[in-house]
Amino acid sequence: MTSRSTYHHGDLRQAVLAAALDVIAADGPGALSLRDLARRAGVSHAAPAHHFKDRTGLLTAVAAQGYELLADALAAAPDLRERGVRYVRFAVEHPAHFQVMFQPELLRADDPDLLAAKERASAGLRSGIAELRDVPDARTAGVAAWSLAHGFATLLLTHNVRDAVGDRNPEEYFRDLTGLLFTGQLPPGGGEK
Question: How many helices, marked H, and strands, marked E, lie in the chain?
Answer without folding.
Answer: 10, 0
